[in-house]
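G., the chain you wanted modeled:
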Amino acid sequence: MKRTKLYGNRAERGQYGETKSRVTLTVTQSAIDMLDQMAKEVDLNRSELVEQIARGMLEIKGGQLSRQQAAK
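Predicted structure as tokens:
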């Protein structure tokens, strides 16, 4: 039986059907503060915020976050 490695409290293979990879980003402290504030506004952690922006699930317009409607 294949076991899925745990990452934190969740299995690595999650809602997106693939494992996540660790990456390192270099940004200013101001950018970190802004990411943290945006993540807090939508009740996500920083990693999930970036994931959802990359997948087009969240969009930033004029410094404001908005959730995208699911395609029908």
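The beta strands are 6-7, 10-11, 58-61, 64-67.

Shout if anything looks off.
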